[in-house]
Amino acid sequence: MGLGFTGLALGAMLQRDGVVRAEPETAHQPPNGQPHHAPKAKSVIWIFLSGGYSHLETFDPKPALNRYAGLTFDLAPFANPLTSPLHDRRSRSVVAEEINRRDTYPIIYPMQVGWRRHGQSGIEVSDWLPHIGSCVDDLAFVRSIYTTDNDHAAENQIHTGRHRLDEVQPSIGSWINYGLGSLNDNLPSFVVLGGPTRSDTRASIDSNYLGPRHAGIPLNLDPNNPLPNGRRSPDLLPEEHRNEFDLIGRLNGLAAVEYPQDANLRARIRAYELAYRMQTAVPEAVALPSESEATRRLYGIDQANTRLAGERLLGARRLVERGVRFVQVFPSPDGVWDSHQQLRANHTRLCATIDKPVAGLLKDLKQRGLWDDVLVVFCTEFGRTPGLEQRGGGRDGRDHHPHGFTVFFAGAGIRKGIAHGATDELGFHALEPGHYVTDMHATVLHQLGLDARRLEVPGRRRLNVDFGEPIREIMV
């Protein structure tokens, strides 16, 4: 929010009118609020758990880990996953492989929690997630996601589709902002709750070459101060404040006559007007105390360990309800799911912080009639290794694992109660055809009525993998 009024508003304003762009009228233009095809969804709530939760102890239990615990991969009665051609094909290390081959621990580590089948679909979910387990008949799990970065730059990769050795691309939320804009002129199109918390993961909400007007806008959930650097001073009357904005608008308008091709100037003119309107709209949108006690309990806001996630997810529901297109939610602090050691203790505690709030969101969307309008994505940056991490004498943790992990989708246009794709018997590799992270992006864009290939910007070459392919098996 240190960007002030201009930076705040640039993320939400000009896509709908289509007038602020540096390219000539004959150049490619985004849809300006018009989808390429009939959409199934109006908005997206993208839930991201930073650090990498273990797919094995959440949504992809593997009994073979218990059966062959303590053996090395080459002694188990399965093909050794370390010698599979998939391993090197889907791996990219930033430094020499002999230094950074950190996902190759060969001793099988047993599961640290039990699991059971839930619902009529019988989908297996960890005992650490009973509330989400109760919702499985509404969810579509994808158990064959993979990425290529084995370090925490994967947090950016899951949102941009690019490895850190490649040119950075805009984030998925920025593409949606660019393609559709907002449904509410008083709110941004792309809002971020709870993150990113580090400067090196700014790319996960950034718009890169699409321009700052399409970047994610972090908001606070304090209704008394949701817009740092965006509050009217208490010694300034509302009329005086309005006059200031009017004067700035007139001055900018005079400059626009002199410099009619200055896209940044034209953006700034509208930025001040939107910033003025947001001072009223945003505090109302994040006024969580106005919700009923029953709703607050549904999200776990009445309990200390679930309050943080509950408030952010309830805030996300309120924002999509008011027309925000894409809400990127970080329900947990930065990197906390990174369980190199003490996985059982860490995941026991962390699952308890998000289980009830996430289930509460799903149930709330249904009871409010938002299920057919809002697409929910629940994801992380990578899974955890089936092998025991041994660095530093490790005895009870799992390392980063990009080769196969699980996410789930729910809501608008998504099939209910299915588990699509799989990893191998040990949970190591996503079996072919696996889904690279941009398949998640393509799925979201498709449900919103957008074709990723028609969003490509001239002069900005995207790789074929950048576009991804919609995961049609999970679509209605």
Describe the structure.
- This protein has 476 residues and is of the alpha/beta class.
- It has a single domain (31-221, 286-474), classed as Alkaline Phosphatase, subunit A.
- The chain has 14 helices and 13 strands.
- The strands form three sheets. Strands 1, 4, 5, 6, 7, 8, 11, 12 and 13 form a nine-stranded mixed beta sheet that branches.
- A hairpin with a 4-residue loop joins strand 2 and strand 3.
- Helix 1 packs across helix 9 (263-285), helix 8 (238-258) runs antiparallel to helix 9 (263-285) and helix 11 (307-321) runs parallel beside helix 12.
- It is globular, with a radius of gyration of 23 Å.
- Residues 1-28 have low confidence and may be disordered.
Backbone shape: globular
* Secondary-structure element series: HEHHHEEHEHHEEHHHHEHEEEEEEHH
Task: Give the CATH superfamily.
Answer: Alkaline Phosphatase, subunit A
Low-confidence stretches: 1-28
- Give the total of domains: 1
- Distance N terminus to C terminus? 39 Å
Q: Please give the CATH architecture.
A: 3-Layer(aba) Sandwich
Instruction: Let me know the number of strands.
Output: 13
CATH topology: Alkaline Phosphatase, subunit A
CATH class: Alpha Beta
* Category from helices, strands and their pairing: alpha/beta
Mean pLDDT: 88
- Estimate what percentage of residues fall within beta strands: 5-15%
Query: Fraction of residues in helices?
Result: 25-40%
Number of helices: 14
What is the C-alpha radius of gyration, as a whole number of Å?
A: 23 Å
- Largest sheet features: 9 strands, mixed
